[in-house]
Amino acid sequence: MGFTFCPCRKCWGSKLDPEAQRIHDAVKKQLTRDREIYRNKMKILLLGAGEAGKSTILKQIQMIHGRQYSDGERRQFVVLIRRNLLDAIQTLIHAMDQLNIQYQDDANASLAQKIRSLSPTDSVFDQDTANKTEQLWRDEGIQQAYDRRREFVLSDSAKFFLDQAAAIGTDDFLPDDHCIMRMRVATTGIVEYPAHYRGMDLLFVDVGGQRTERRKWIHAFDNVSSLFFVASLSDYDQMVVEAAGKNRMEESVNLFDTVLRTPYFRSSTIILFLNKMDLLEEKIPHSRLEEHFPEYKPNLPGSGESDYERARKFIKSLYTDVFAGARLAGRDEDSSLYSHFTCATDRSCVERVYYNIRDDILNRALGDYAVG
Ligand SMILES: Nc1nc2c(ncn2[C@@H]2O[C@H](COP(=O)(O)OP(=O)(O)OP(=O)(O)O)[C@@H](O)[C@H]2O)c(=O)[nH]1
Ligand SMILES: [Mg+2]
After folding, report:
1. Which ligand is nearest to the CA of 61?
2. Of all protein residues, whose CA lies closest to atom 26 belonging to ligand 1?
3. With respect to CATH, is domain 44-68+187-194+202-358 assigned 3.90.1010.10?
4. Would you call 243 helix, strand, or coil by DSSP?
5. Ligand 2 center to 344 CA (angstroms)
6. Span 249-302, pLDDT tens digits
7. Phi, psi of 289 (to 5 degrees)
8. Residue 120 in 3-state DSSP?
9. Cα–Cα distance measured from residue 325 to residue 133, given in angstroms and rounded to the nearest whole number
10. Residue 4 gets which letter from DSSP?
11. Of 49, 43, 56, 50, whose CA–CA distance to 350 is shortest?
12. Fold for domain 71-182?
């Protein structure tokens, strides 16, 4: 039987039988085709649990790449922001019943009845409703319910919108960039955002992080050059929206583990965004991390390290430990994890981190295609 020499450097000098040679040639041909297709393209996939901040980070990245919102687009966002506002106050009204909290003022109790009956799809969120919402938000009872928000599911941007309820109700309200970053619209399906940089076509791919959305993720796993995993630092005392009683941070860490063990990403470099550091800093003095994660040892006074810094380190270690475990269980030795603390609603913070990683991931992708 005639043998030929394999032409690739790895098996230089070894002989292949004709069938192996045929497969080898076909694979090489496919690789060359792929290399041509993807030479100037880079796909960056964002994964993470629901509400971690994936879409917000992407909105910032799009703006860093020059995207600007027109007045027409901003006007379309008004409806969504008013819906966020109505959802926030209705959630608090519902929580008042659940937690058996009384309104400070009887007049506010009847206001609450009116607001409770509004449908989020109605376009009745006018100035009068906005004023009533603001009045209710100032009620002592509603504030008590807000302080107990970890006992129910309330959007992280609720306070931001409730604090400016009356302004949001005015006819000429037009959200600025910061307001757009605080808006909450759960992603459904797979959403792609193209961008260009250094002659490369970048394709950012955003997916929905809620449980029902995750089964669609597989459709976005092909040809990923870089994987961003987004995790919230402040969800240690919150429950999963889709599964009351399940701790959100625990769910996110488990999800990270699953992603790391997915064969598609076994050798991928992972960029971990430990997001919502502003909310962690705000929350840590009031809500004890050790109540939810008993392994966490709070800071001792006089040690020179704040509780916030210590909590950040601890949460980061939950993810890095999982990465180390996945490595032991068969992840590629060369795969790396880079983590960054972020506040996605803060442009300068995302800019700093993104500039830091953009050239790196690009050089790595170019390096990959240079091989062979
Ligand atoms: N304060 C604060 N809010 C944030 C931060 N990141 C995101 N948010 C808010 O958190 C909410 C959820 O953010 P999204 O970007 O929609 O989260 P997501 O990961 O895309 O969620 P899904 O689409 O459901 O998977 C929005 O209201 C954001 O404004 C942050 O760093 N700080
Ligand atoms: Mg999203």
Report:
1. 1
2. 184
3. no
4. strand
5. 12
6. 999 999 999 999 999 998 888 999 999 999 999 999 999 999 999 999 887 777
7. -65, -35
8. coil
9. 48
10. E
11. 56
12. GI Alpha 1, domain 2-like (1.10.400)
Q: Out of 156, 176, 274, give the residue to mutate to test ligand 1, the one with the largest number of ligand atoms within 8 Å of its CB.
A: 156
370 alpha carbon – ligand 1 mean position (Å): 37
The reply to whether 71-182 shares the fold of 44-68+187-194+202-358 is no
Q: What are phi and psi of 117, to 5 degrees?
A: -80, -5
Report whether 47 contacts 228 (CB < 8 A). Answer: yes
- Residue-wise over 98-131: b if at least 16 C-beta within 10 A, else e? eeebebeeeebbebbeebeeeeeeeeebeeebbe
- What radius of gyration do the chain's Cα atoms show? 25
0.90 exceeded by pTM: no
* CA–centroid distance, residue 199 to ligand 2 (Å): 28
DSSP state of 150: G
Indicate the average pLDDT of the chain. 89
Domain ranges of the chain: 44-68+187-194+202-358, 71-182
Q: What separation in Å is there between the alpha carbon of 46 and the centre of ligand 2?
A: 9
For ligand 1, atom 27, the nearest C-alpha belongs to: 184
Q: What is the pLDDT of residues 150-193, one digit of tens each?
A: 899 999 999 999 999 999 999 999 999 999 999 999 999 999 99
- Alpha-carbon distance values, 87 to 92, 183, 264, 336 (Å): 9, 12, 38, 40
Candidate from 46, 47, 55 with most ligand 1 atoms within 8 A of CB, to mutate: 55
* Atom in ligand 1 nearest the alpha carbon of residue 59: 15
DSSP codes of every residue in 196-236: EETTEEEEEEEE--SHHHHTTGGGG-TT-SEEEEEEESSGG
Exposed/middle/buried for residue 351 (C-beta within 10 Å: 0-12, 13-18, 19+): middle
Closest atom, ligand 1, to C-alpha of 213: 25
CA nearest ligand 1 atom 30, residue: 276
Would you please indicate which residues are annotated as catalytic (active-site) residues? Answer: 51, 56, 184, 206, 210
DSSP category for residue 151: G
